[in-house]
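ARCHIVE CARD
SHELF: 3
SLOT: left
DATA:
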Amino acid sequence: MSGFYPASEIQPPDITLKWLEDETFFSICSRQHAIWGNHEPSATFRLLSESPGRPATHDFAYNLNALRPSIRSVWGDPDSIIHEHTILPLFLPFQSQPHIQAVMQMLKGEGAGSIKYRLGLVTGRFGAEHPLKACSCCIDSDFCRHGVAYWHVAHQYPGVLICPVHKVWLQESVHNRPWSGRFQLALPGHASLTHQRAEDLEPIELEALNQLATAILDLASVGNSRSFEPLLVRSVYRNALSQVGYRNPTSSQVTSSLVQHTSPLQPFHPLTSLPTTEQKASTFIEQLIRSPRGHSHPLKHLVMITWLFGDVSAFIDAYDRLAQEPEHPDAPQLLYTDTQAAKPSEPIQAKKLKPKTLKPPMRAQILRMLSRGAQKHSICSQFSITISTVNKLLRAEPLAQKSWIAAKFQKDLLKHRSEWSSLLQQFPDSSASVVRAHGPNLYAWLYRNDKAWLVQEISRLPTGRNGNNSKVDWSERDIELERSVENAMKLVLSTHPDHTCNKQSIHSLVPALSSCLQNTNQYPRTRALLLRLKQQRF
């Protein structure tokens, strides 16, 4: 009868559970649901919260400000719940402070809203769905130690596919998936988990997955206390590439090295978007070393970090060293004036020259040379005079000074244009950001003094990124998805001939299937295959 009373007047039973080690907020809500003996999750949420709406999804908790005081006194305040019992800390280090504050307020409020879009999960190509995962060994161990199995935070981070403790493959739950039906408060059990992988992992795959999982957990552990400035992160990556001898970040040597690093990871969901060709690896690198255009998924950074540094701690050390340098590495380059530029190249005189009065023939000859844009130091050397004499002459002859400035500028213009063209020949098929990285001073001079020409030249270069305007081959995607479903079914039937094909089993075998089919206008071949499987009832 509690449903007939306002939520504020409903009092929860005296039994309030305490946290278990590394337990998620969803897990403790599920345990509380079980011990209270409620049939519907809504009944449990009414006892936990003073306002309508559920405060628990299995990845991001929300509506936490509405938790009852009696619950907060045991479970802690909303901040501690978010930071210690959800996966959010993994996504914080590469977010700006305003972004972090906005996300925290959304989780404390009545609805998570567009939190996954704000965190870059929707467009990050690693998927926005975070299925519940559990380790079969942890389930048995938890039963022995606590009398109940529960969801561990360390298992839920995207990209963690191996249990950090037992080094076995994590199994996904069939609960709370887009294809599983209604929302449930549930605890892990062997019967509700997908089948264990039939084939054994290769040693190189296991090592790569363990390295990535360790990096994910390390990043999450500092997520509540550290945030990284995007421009500095870009510079850290560039410095690391140059320190290992990679002058051109998108050369064949670099991209093949990245492909070698990502290939053992790419077959496994949600890492299937990682590059497996040199062209895709070049795009991947350029996205992380160019000027930031938004927030990248942390898995993208962690792949870069494990490739260049091995672990997160080495990356943080490099970041801190760079941050302590007196000058910001991405500060705009200041251009030297003509007087400043001339100083390093002035010849060392055998004897100290003094300003002197020029005779008319010599004076006329010097003025003619200056009007053609001759360098001051060459005139000083030829006529054995000082810079002050040349400057005094130019001040006395305004027309000659104007001609000298114009002629010198034209010479410098041609020189810098020629150097930029030479740079383009050294790095053919590279984007403007890659070429710029190899001649920052040259780019800065042209940008300030010959911007129209520079922009025209850059417009002819490839962008270096596959953005929203890139053409998607939907037919090829459809064929690949259809093949994935067929291969998954063949694999299962080869080991379990009596396996029954249903919607739940197919989606559990092909994790990407659910998100792909949300696009109702695409994947006709795959939809036809699913219809045949449903009719045949394998």
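SLOT: right
DATA:
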Amino acid sequence: MDRNAPERDAPQRDDRTFDDPSDAALSDDALGADLSRPEDALVLFMPSGRRGRFPHGTPVLEAARQLGVYVESVCGGRGICGRCQIDVAEGVFAKHQITSSAENLSAFSDTEARYKKKRGLAEDRRLSCQALIKGDLVVDVPVEAQTNRALVRKRAETRVIDRDPAIQLCYVEVEEPDMEQPLGDADRLIAALETQWTLYNVRMDFRLLPTLQAVLREGHWKVTVAIHEGAVPTVIAVWPGFRDKLYGIAVDIGSTTIACHLTDMLTTRTVSSAGTANPQIRFGEDLMSRVSYLMMNPDGLPALTKSVRGAIESLVDKVTGDAGATRDDVLEAVFVGNPIMHHLFLGIDPRELGGAPFALAVSRAMSFSAERIDLGINPGGRVYMLPCIAGHVGADAAGATLAEGPHRSDEITLMVDVGTNAEIVLGNSERVLAASSPTGPAFEGAEISSGQRAAPGAIERVRIDPETLEPKIQVIGLDAWSDEEEFAEKIDQTGVTGICGSGIIEVIGEMFLAGIITQDGVIDGSLAEKSDRIVADGRTFAYVLWRGDQEIRVTQNDVRAIQLAKAALYAGVKLLMDKFGCDHVDRIKLAGAFGSHIDPKYAMIIGLIPDCDLKKVAAVGNAAGTGARMCLLNKAYRAEIEDLVQRIEKIETAVEPRFQEHFVAAMALPNKVDAFPRLSEAVRLPAAPVLEAAEAGGRRGRRGGRQGGRRGARAG
């Protein structure tokens, strides 16, 4: 038996997360979960979001296996390999109704002490094979321990960027000191910059003075200096002799993933990229959960800030190592991120963003010395952060807007970054508007019964035969479809482990096209007579997408979660269209890592985006990261985005009276009110009449709509 394989029978498993207790109460009956036994401990694993109850004394590793949380363990749980390390997140996690403490694990074992003595073990780490559950826990599985790691798919998009950086290298030959000219060494260096590079009023970073004389003499009075061209030109680094290495990093801090791109500032080429899951996920999958965590744990801010900065520092090590560079070579860092990540990265408490009027501590662009926040780059380097547009439309949206340039076109362009909090920009050369909409984590699998993040084995493509209702799937890590021989030959390499975001959108779209779900999103139980794929699930029905070691279903609650998420986003889009005064858009751009893997056709079929010519709907990849790289390589782009953000009209969906109206209409597939004529030219949509909802399904749909509207009002 493979000890690393998850157990097939896990009756206490519960993969869901909820925005409020009423959602939990609504769903428990349908999923058959039993979370009420007080003698068992509730354990939540991050970043997967899977949770369940376990008897006291259960090893954490065994709990992970039962829930299908993949934790590496080469030695079979004997405490030898040290691969199964975990952290315990401490504090009150209100969203999950868990109070987690390291004291809820058994005491440090002799095996762990022996491993720590021989191999080393960080103070906050435990070996999950040795640590026994003694109470409620939130367990963080570090990236290096995940055997089925989520894929971070924020690549550096190819873009030709004119070079005009804020930092330049200057090679100078400094006159040696003599008795006739009693100038200090720093003064003679500055004089050399004036005569040889026509740079005037240059000042020297005070940090360099203690070592400057040694560097000048080591280079025999020939040195290379780095000049930051700010309001006052400043020497920020000095090296002996000639040097032609200058690197910068562009970092997109997402709520789920962090991507770092190392750029050669002399050639403009991106030489290395790396990404990682945002370790803050253990404090909450979505942004408002992290704000809630801080509300419940006022002293938790340093932990959140430390975790994200530590992840970035590790990425700097990775990209510089891959490129054969050093940290000292990195002299510029540009960051983008949503407002909450922006604040947490800077060490600013974001709790004011948790409620109206969603006040930012700072919205303008920021530039400061890298030594103020330890990131592992040259301490004399500079940090630039793009401006935030509004309370929930951040520097990432500003970067994406800069990269895609709706303000440079006459076409009405809609740009959407689909995430736990969707950021929406609409406009053309005349006007640009922006808003955010609280979609929640459903598109990333957190509220889906078999949902997971993008990782090998996750279903990402789905097709359903409308006659037989038989599905075929594609999983990440394998190109073949499930009805091809190659799939059967190679599927053991990855397994079929769950459904990721793009797969969730496609399966809902295919179920709608095949008539399995109605326009109102109700799974038609009468089809059980036609196909054994339609099965009873409590008082509702479910669709069996995959039968294997792990059966994967799409439940009525899953459909509702996607309806709520897509309706919130569409309602935000409609508000911007109302304000702009347009009844259509000419072009749609799907930004972000998730947007890059959504099939635009299926996004339109479920009503995630408005009707548009499909030829003019495209994924634009990591546009926020591209905007960061533009600002890294050319200071003129910094001026452009700083000016544009001042002119963008900000719309707060939370206070707009029509949001609820648009939201209710958008609960239907694709929409109860809006027509989709361009989509109908490409896809045969089901007839409009809606079947009567099942007793529970109807109640839940209406209740779900009300809850989604309240959620939108709270978080908009």
